[in-house]
Amino acid sequence: MNASPLLKGTLQTIILKLLEDNDRMYGYEISQKVKEVTKGEIVLTQGALYPALHKLEADGLLKTYTEVVDNRVRKYYHLTEEGEKDVVNKMKEAQDFIEQLQSILNLKPDLL
């Protein structure tokens, strides 16, 4: 499920939710957390993750700062106040969509 359209459509929601739960994270940490939680079923590539992070930052939902850790510069991402509000909305939208999708997929063939 690495580059599926379903993942692309939910990537921003995934990022925002992880940052809500973890306060701040750097890009590699986000990708590793997704991989860990999904037992390797979802792998976020740099080509998908970083454009999504940059868009969220440009939209004012994330702020960044850098820290030097073990002589390496890490760019951390953190939710803005607007981002904290948006994650609530995106989670509600995702839950509603999942419920509607389950309704459709669980229909008996004779009801179609």
TrEMBL record:
Domain Transcription regulator PadR N-terminal: 15-86
Pfam families: PadR (PF03551)
InterPro entries: Metal_resp_DNA-bind_regulator, Tscrpt_reg_PadR_N, WH-like_DNA-bd_sf, WH_DNA-bd_sf
Gene3D superfamilies in UniProt: Winged helix-like DNA-binding domain superfamily/Winged helix DNA-binding domain
Organism superkingdom: Bacteria
Protein name (record): PadR family transcriptional regulator
